[in-house]
Amino acid sequence: MQCAKCGQEVPADAIYCPHCTGDRKTTDREVIRGGIRGGAIGLFLGMLPTVWLLFQFGAERGIKAIAFAVPIATFTTGLIIGLVKAKRDWK
């Protein structure tokens, strides 16, 4: 079987290409750090509309629920994107 990325021969029982993954210089800690960085960026971006919503409409019951759901959603999205990106940049 040939690797789709590098074109070299890969053993049939291999999960990853041993030529592409190499020594695996990227650690699990760096992948987690990428996820945390993505989550922090998502949280920051989610806080912008939250502050605007609370400033524009006040702290009404429905607005508070929406305003606090936005950062949670953007944090979760950023966390997932950060983990995927760090995993994709695996060296």
What does this 3D model show about the protein?
- By secondary structure, this protein is mostly helical.
- The protein has a domain at 26-88.
- Helix content is 68%, strand content 0%.
- It has helices at residues 18-21, 28-57, 61-88.
- Helix 2 runs antiparallel to helix 3.
- It starts with 17 loop residues before the first helix and ends with a helix.
- The model has no long low-confidence stretch (mean pLDDT 82).
Which short descriptors sum up this protein?
91 residues; rod-shaped; mainly alpha; transmembrane; Zinc ribbon domain-containing protein; 3 helices; transmembrane helix
| End-to-end gap | 22 Å
Rg, alpha carbons: 20 Å
| β-strand number | 0
Helix content: 55-70%
- Summing up helix and strand content along with how strands pair, one would put the structural category as mainly alpha
Transmembrane segments: 39-59, 65-84
Protein name: Zinc ribbon domain-containing protein
Keywords: Membrane, Transmembrane, Transmembrane helix
Short description:
The protein is 68% helix and 0% strand.
Layout of SSEs?
Elements: H1 18-21, H2 28-57, H3 61-88
Helix pairs in contact: 2-3
Keywords: Membrane, Transmembrane, Transmembrane helix
Protein name: Zinc ribbon domain-containing protein
Transmembrane segments: 39-59, 65-84
